[in-house]
What we know:
Helices cover 36% and strands 29% of the residues.
Amino acid sequence: MVVCLLMMAGVSTVEARKQKVAKVYIFGMAAAFTDTIVHFTNIQALDSVWIDSKNKFLQEREAYSYQLREYLKQQQAPNRTCIVFYSQKREKLEKKYQKMLRLYGKAKDGAQHFDVRFVTDNDFKFKRVITGEESNE
């Protein structure tokens, strides 16, 4: 009985760490080891998402990466490794976006080592992922 009480207390503290935030900003990047093409989405706003209040991780972030991967697969660009970057502050995310563009843009020697392609908002938009917390509400 004591073990059950301790387990229930642990579950309630885990649930307390997740919080719903009004808005986050997100962009995605995709690359493959087999070619030099790198895709970037624009910075987009997502409303009402869940954030882990302890470490500030976006809940279900792998599902957002999967959305981009599936879109690129449909566009004849399979086997991409997709990453999403997010922040509650647009300015902070814009700095990260510019840093990533510089990293994959022209090198210091002026050569273009990667073929950077942009995915427009008309072509792809991240969709908010429904989490287990919302089904419990």
